[in-house]
Structures are given as structure tokens and as C-alpha cells.
Amino acid sequence: MLATSYTPEEYNQLPDQPGVYKYYNAENTLIYVGKAKSLRKRVASYFVKSAGLNAKTRRMVREVKKIEFTIVDSEFDALLLENNLIKKTQPRYNILLKDDKTYPYLLLTKEHFPRIFPTRRVIPSRGSYYGPFASVKAMNNILDLIRSIFTIRTCKLDLHPRKIAEQKYKVCLEYHIGNCLGPCEALIGEPEYLKDIEQAKHILKGNLGIPKSFFKTKMQEAAENLQFEMAQRYKEKLDLLEKYQAKSLVTSPTVSNLDVVALVSDEKHAYVNYLRIKNGAIILTKTVELKKKLDEPDSEILLTALVRLRDQFQSESKDTISNIEVEFENENLTITVPKIGDKKRLVELSLKNALYYKKEKALAAGDVKDKKDRILRQLQADLSLKDLPDHIECFDNSNIQGTHPVASMVCFLNGKPANKEYRHYHIKTVEGPNDFASMTEVVGRRYKRLMDEKKPLPKLIVIDGGKGQLSSSVEALKQLGIYGKIPIIGIAKRLEEIYFPDDPFPLHIDKKSESLRLLQRIRDEAHRFAITFHRDVRSKNAFGTQLTTIKGIGQETADKLLKHFKSYKKIGEATLEEIIEVVGKSKAEKIIEAIKEKSG
Q: Based on C-alpha coordinates, what's the Rg of the chain?
């Protein structure tokens, strides 16, 4: 039954039955959808005792000009209908899940020699869909497991028996490397192929026990028939299943199929974590954020989120456990709060996920800057710095037995890497493997340039190394007359010790400290940047050496060829015309002739 003409003053004419009610404003816009065990009593609570409502709800009630309702058979049906209506219409005063993702499925196609592959588009006529999966990683784990155990084709060929009989296809590389059994050339029959598909279906449904039992039986049969190689193959498949199941097992197998949901909230938002358990294993996990609209109680928010998540991920479990008491019980859905045992531990795990998500959202929503400032203030306190170190520069050297010595400088502004300010240095004045002298050179070059260009100096200099490298860097600052104006420290990697100039005793910052982690991150970034540069220089020099030994070919020509062809090998594979386009005919002919002599 659907009524469309009731006004707020006529609420007492609504039926005393379960259903869904809808509020419209003066513009005939749907502004709220609600469920009720008794439509009359629930709607009356808005208009009879409006003084007891919070400010947000009173504002909504003042907007209501028309009420529609739909009668259903039970409170559970009302809950499902409410969910569908909210999802479809998204009224402004209803709680909405802040999640508009299209989740991936695994599709088992409806065709000869079926395939299994991921998709985000659901077209029922194409086959059977399994999912949706809350993450691509979770989906790929199952897909990789299936492809490791079963040999299921991945090609898109139409393997109709008539086309196979006409020999329209030839086996591809997948067959030759053992990833396909060659159905396109009738090397396997469809009935035999479908046996693997049947077992794969059980894995897609989360019923790992059935394929495990199947492979165990096959293994035993093969062993009894002295087919030991075949028995070993079945054992390997069984091991893969058990290994996969062991990764997901979090509680006793006696905990059968159920949903777990936990909620934490603040004044404006609620965060709900949802776990689906099947045969004692977590097969799905998802955390969502809900924005409160009418200061709804946590129990109502949890129930709303639970129904939507169950609908979204197609759960058919009748049992749900939670951290919040919800006055709702139906033969199709029972919600309880466990007090002891494995179920209580599952709820605690779910709650931990919700709390972590809440923390991450708070940081992402605007507390990130506060976090950066907090870390920098902590670093300032740990190092007894006069100013906040919002501009940090770090140096590192890289050489192998003195060959191709280079250095790097990375810059962090407000605790974040400023990639445009990174610098590479070729060591110019030092002969041989001398890290100390190299550090003096690059630190001096960096800050002489900043001073000449009248650019701001950093608030902290970090040297990757111990007392020796630090002393060498201090010498460079003294030569420039700025020692004492910029704080400088060295960080030794072995024990993560912090060294100060003229202090024989290192500082040990708490290993769990955020400030030490920032220093480590800066030091590691400088090291990565130096190593990458050194590797590039070695490759370039090795490449150049091979070419510059050719008479008439200099470093400039070698550099041009490196930029164009990327490797010496690719030059050897290039045609004369291709090399002429880069360096001209005369040099190209010399290069081709030299390469032929070396290879011939």
C-alpha cells in the first residue's frame, strides 16, 4: 500500500504496521527515508514530542510538507527497502556511505571451455559473478591460487566444437609453457576441462574444504596405483590450498559463517569495519565512513551500515557479531555482542581496524600539517635546535674503490621531500677513494653557491656518516665562514647514532621516535639518490669507453648515441641508416665497421 497525500498533521492516520516512510519538502523533494516497526508510532515521535529532538532533527521536521509510506511484512523487510531507497535517491538527511567505488568481481564465463577473469561490469548473461571483492589484491590472490592449481585457458577464442573440429586454431605460447592444455586443438575434452572448473567454483565460493578433499583423494589413488609423479602433483595442489587457507585463518574452524561488524564514532562521523568469516577464515574486509546527519545513535548507524555492506558484498549469513548492542532480531538476521572466546577476539580485531581507519581519516582530513609540525617540533627538541628545522639538507657520497666518485644532496621542506631541490655532484678535486675530502668539497660547493645566489640556508644539515664525515663537512662550513650559523649533525647507520661537532659522545634518540624516523628517511633518500646517480655514471662511462676506443669517436658522440639508443647492444642491432640519423654518415660507418670487427 502506498499513500501520497498525508500531511504532517495527519500522522495519526498512518497504519500501526512495519514499513518505510518518506518525507518531502515544499519543493516535493525527498529529504528523508526511514524504517519503522510501527509507522504510526515512529512518525508520531517526530511531530508529537518535537521539543525532545536535537536541533538537526527539528530543522528537518520543519521542512516536512508531505509524508509517503510503504507497508511491508516485517521490520527486516523495512530495513532492506529503506536501504534500497536511500541508495537510489540519497536524501539529504539520511546517512550515506562515503564510498562510490565500483568493486571488482571474478567472472566465470558461460561458454565452451569457460574462462575466469576479473571485471567491474556485471552483465548477468555473460556468466556467474563471484564477489564483489573489497580490494583488487584480495581478488588477485584468489585468481592466482586458481591459476596455480588449475590449468584454465586465458585466451578469448570462441571454442565452439564445430570450430575446433574445423581446425581453425593453433596452440599458442601459453600451451608450450604449461599454462594451457590446448582445448583449441582438442588436446583436452570439455568434460575433463569442466572437472577443474567445478573445483574452481568451490574456491570462488570460499569452500576450500571440498577441493582439498578432492585432491587428497586423488593423491591417495595415484599413490596406490604407483603413479608417484601424479601423486606429487596432487600433493603440490593440496599444499597450495592449505598454504592459502593458513594465511587467512584467524580463529577456530568451529566459527562457521558469520559477519563481524564494529563501529567507532565521533561528533560528526562514524567508522564501521566489516569482516566476512567463512569456515574460520576472513574472506573479505572493508571499512567505511558515514557522515552523521541527525545525531543518530551508534546502534542505528551500525544497523544501517551493516545492511548496506551485506547488500554490497552479497552476504547471506544470518549471524552477525558486533561491539554494540542493537535491538534487532529476525529469523534472517541476528546481531549479538560476544563476551568470550574466538568470536570476541574477532570483534576486537574488527574494532582495531575501525580505530585505525578513523585515525588515518583524521590525518588525511587536515591533521597532516599538525603531524608534520609535531614531528619537526620533536626533532627540534631532540637536537636542541634554536629554530624549527623546516628546511633540512642531507649529503651522501657514493663510489666503488674510488671509481666514478659522486655525491648527492636531498632537500626536505616541512618534513616532505622537495625533489626539485635535489642535487647531484661529480667529485672534481679529489683523487682516489677519499670520502672525507669528497664531503668537504660538495658541502663547500653547495653553500658557496647558495651564498653567491643569496638564497636561504637550511635550518639543519645532515651528513650520512660518523665523526669523520661530519668533521670534513664542518671544515667546509668554516672555510665559508658560516660554521655555527647552521646546525649540522652526522648520523651513523650501524647504531643510528647522532653526532654533533666537537662532541665525542653520540646522541641516541628513541628508536620508536618519529623524529628519528624522519632523519632515517632523509638519510635513506640521500643514499638512494647517490647510488642511482653513481649507477647511471658507471653505465654511461662503460658505454662511452666501448665507443671512444673507436678512432674518430669522442665523448660527445658517445653521449648522443647513449641518449638515442640507450645501450651498446642496441647500437650493434641498429642499421647504418639509423646511426647516420644520429651522428652522420662518416662516424656511422666507422662505428658499424668497428662493431663488425669486434663481433667477427
A: 35
